[in-house]
Design a protein that fits this description.
32% helix; four-stranded antiparallel sheet; alpha/beta; Alpha-Beta Plaits; 10 helices; TIM Barrel; homotetramer; 19% strand; eight-stranded parallel barrel
Chain lengths: 338, 338, 338, 338
């Protein structure tokens, strides 16, 4: 870490900062320039957050040198991490596609969707039983009944199941059914929940918050890993930008950047990322071409009557066509699908 | 709600939309222009979210006419709502100042801070017992011990207490101590938690998410109100912008806008809003001049040794000076302080 | 256009709006609901901007139904527009790659770069003679001397030339040399300049402003087209987001969206879009997979000694490898390169 | 400046960076930590932008220590700069209010507005003769005729005139009439234009770009100052955020921050900052309470018939009431108005 003192910092102020650092166990180096005095400090980066050095008199700014995350960093674990859910490996040679409806609505809807997406090549079924909705008046999910239907669909198709957990209290229930626990974008910094899923022996699919930086996203992964669960799958799902024609802006750029900074697998959700089904296939191709390890796609047997996110759901026919495209792009990346 | 059909929508597509609306109980009006067919629909706005009309073939866009919130709107409740915590009224003629440290660190620190802020004119003591921290390696709060210390400080000073609740499981514990429950910015869209605090008989201070629109913020308030708790205090605490010199950008503009759209009281937290104590007094003045009903200010007996957010905490001396300023601006707005 | 009246608008206020619309030549339709009165107005959308209806008493909001651009819209020109620069066609079956250094620095540097990018398959040479720089102390370009060197490189390699025009006064000079005129991102809403390039018989490569919405970008294209020059090539070059690890966030999502809304060709500049050469190849692949008609890539014989944007420039070797990738993705899209 | 090498940088890579810095005239200091090698470099900060150190092999990041601007910084000029336009001083004890219509529309409109704003206490008349409009189909200003009318209004009222210059070619014309040259928000990074106004002997009112950071804004001021014109007035006019209820979000936070970083006067334009007249008075009060040196306010004799920005223009009556408020807040800041 580097501490830049203000141009009129006194010798006493510099001394106080040095002493504070040394007392906390940092090795310091002082550099007095013409315009600024600069202090370099080497020590345990995880203590930086609590030191409040910028509150000290005469300090202009504090510049961290190392990233604040450790376990999630590529430096900590140079090879790619492969996360498994049963016999399905995410982050390895195969690209995995998770598909299904936004929300579990009924037995018929879910089973139909499950068979359709499996037919087209998906290996994991998505479907929300607990739904975070912006409006208190919107459909909030079938809850436990939805989880039971997901289990039935798994039984019927052999697909693994990914579903969202919204709260520490319902975590045991969701974990009893899910193969992969999804942390939704709005909960990316729900630190209580992150600490709880860290104690469960299930892979966690961690969605990026719509306004989160990549560092914040990796810090959320660090929470889960620091708590003991290293099976984290990162999922880019669109960021909030000024554009309002689309629901969000899918940040494909994040894919190669995260793969460079971290060893964790990265998948992409173009359905939420854009919010209009028409643009999902192009962005699915782009994501795989950029190096994504998988996709999360909303598919509904009848999007116009979906209780949730119909406008961004593909019909089974369009999904099958998308899978054809994805296979071709994957081949070009020397990868298979599923 | 208005549905704009695409320029090449067929008569059958228009018909399908009309039928769907009518079946859901909307009264419709068809307007066929040269370039576009437009459908107006009048009915229960709260059903709009689940209809997925944009997924229907031939629909270009759906434009809501009414705001999606009801209970939180000025139209629903034309007068100003005054929320009380014991004998303290928020949203009335008096401006209330909530002040204290970011985190409860120790008995000495908290009691010292409590006496100091009361002395200067604050009526409510802030202090976190459960702390949402970006890093898993940072101090996470004293938890129940912190709540006990807050209660002791209340006993000693007569100040009311506002403290954050982070999770439904710990809500009963926090509610047993707090006079006002704070929902933190990162939890503004933690809908589970919103539904839980809706069932508690305590005022809720709802912080705005750093990237939330005003509509999203009012929808979060609507969750609490729809669940039965109408004692919501809104708190602007800075939004994320491109500026990186400050921690956030305090959105003073939100104050008159929210006061116009809603009847709920609005307070402002300039400490988090900027993140540098130096700018807090100017922004406290600005907030009151813009019409805020109160302030939330971080004050620490020794900011340089604070375990949390030292750089944005005022010393007791600077806080006392700020209170002088606030009183003068309040007078100009024909209001008192405390 | 739809005018939503506020819930307490008087009959006189409604009347005034109706009269104002009719006097301006709009056909109006009144719809009186329980909660709101709504006025639909059909007429010349280009007059909307000057009417200031929202300033009228009792008006709550004005919702445009049609996009504000005409000539740039897909509805106006359903087929894809192909823009030619000599024998090079942009927006047709072939993907065109424009490559070269950020700035023209010297004869040796430019000619070396030109030969290298042509060798690898580029058809158009990029290179700035006038450079917009954030700092007044940075290298501002060789100006006319740079243009002469570009012409020499064209002569030597057969490549076409794209270079930036920053100002109406120097436009005739730049236009005398360039095959394609580039409008830089910071000038996307320099309406004077847009009106001027509209009068020149050269294709215009219009970069998207880093904070511009797609609609604003297409409105800038509309300026050029309304002035008589329909040969506009759109170039996505990264948007400003909260992410600060990369220079910008390349908005790949914009590619399929713009291709849907407009008939104009769209190319992508991953070099500026990210600012780190390491991520350029992945994003070039993603752009082509998403449907881009071409790429703009910074290549420098010696990036570490570049006078401008070295960190984002590829070495000739890395560029050649990228071109291999691009050819493979293009084939998958049934397109060739160059 | 500090250069952080990547964790696996070789001795040769470190050596190359050291040599590059020394050859450019920097004094260097090497610090080899356990996890990272760090190089401190002291020298001419203005050369940093052209060195492209991040393109060098083994370099992870480059962290500037000093701000990139000099002349605009408070360190360069510790006292407040007062800019004068004739007998009007901006940045001194008096708060100056610039008011008038968005665009000059006619002799009657302008003279009426001029008398009205002078009556209420404004000292400077605003009014656009050249108008930057998002749509090519909107009213683009009366151009020279508008300038003549402004001069006539000055003659008639004694008000000074501020008006926008959009282009280097028309600068001599505008400068012949204006007392203060306005650089519009969209031209904040039109570096050609900045260099041109730097050579004119008139004060320049530099609007902040809607997505510009404070540093970028001050760098734009630096352009003008480095070119020889130190009479720069900064004008905050709203930034682009996710909020869409208002046109922009007025960034009041920028006022104390810029006053701290720079010695230049800062004024605030709440009319553009919000886009709805209703909220202008509250934000004018907030701006002055936060320390602004002046205001720029749109006033139109008949907003509903304005050719430009009617929805954000105050009626003369509302403006007079606003001036009363401003006087009271100014008094509290120990300042007068006008």
């Amino acid at each position: 870490m580097i501490i830049v003192m203000s141009h009129n910092a006194s010798a006493r102020e510099v001394e106080a900062v040095l002493k504070r650092l040394e007392n906390t166990g940092f090795k310091v180096h002082l550099s007095e320039g013409v315009e600024r005095t600069i202090i370099g400090a080497i020590g345990d980066r995880t203590r930086l957050g609590d030191m409040g050095l910028e509150a000290m008199s005469g300090v202009e700014k504090v510049v961290p040198v190392l990233q604040p995350y450790k376990l999630a960093s590529r430096a900590f674990h140079p090879g790619d991490t492969v996360v498994t859910a049963g016999n399905i490996a995410i982050g390895g040679g195969q690209i995995q596609v998770m598909a299904g409806p936004c929300a579990v609505e009924s037995r018929e809807q879910l089973l139909e969707a499950a068979h359709q997406v499996r037919e087209a090549g998906a290996t994991i079924l998505r479907g929300g039983a607990f739904k975070p909705r912006t409006s208190p008046y919107s459909f909030q999910g079938l809850e436990e009944k939805g989880l039971e239907l997901l289990a039935e669909a798994r039984e019927a198709t052999g697909l693994k199941i990914v579903t969202e957990v919204m709260d520490a209290r319902t975590l045991p229930l969701v974990a009893a059914y899910a193969d992969i626990l999804q942390i939704g974008a709005r909960n990316m910094q729900n630190f209580f929940l992150l600490r709880e899923v860290a104690t469960v022996d299930k892979p966690v699919l961690l969605k990026r918050g719509p306004s989160a930086t990549i560092e914040e996203w990796l810090m959320a992964a660090e929470y889960i890993m620091a708590g003991g669960n290293h099976r984290v799958i990162l999922c880019e799902r669109g960021i909030r930008t000024f554009e309002n024609y689309t629901r969000n802006t899918l940040d494909v750029t994040a894919v190669p950047v995260v793969k460079y900074l971290s060893h964790l697998p990265v998948i992409v959700d173009p359905s939420h990322g854009i919010g209009k089904w028409r643009f999902v296939p192009a962005m699915a191709r782009a994501a795989v071409a950029a190096g994504a390890d998988g996709l999360l796609i909303e598919v509904h047997p009848d999007p116009a009557h979906a209780l949730c996110d119909g406008p961004q759901s593909l019909t089974p026919e369009n999904f099958a066509a998308l899978m054809e495209d994805v296979r071709r792009v994957a081949a070009l990346m020397d990868r298979g699908v599923g």
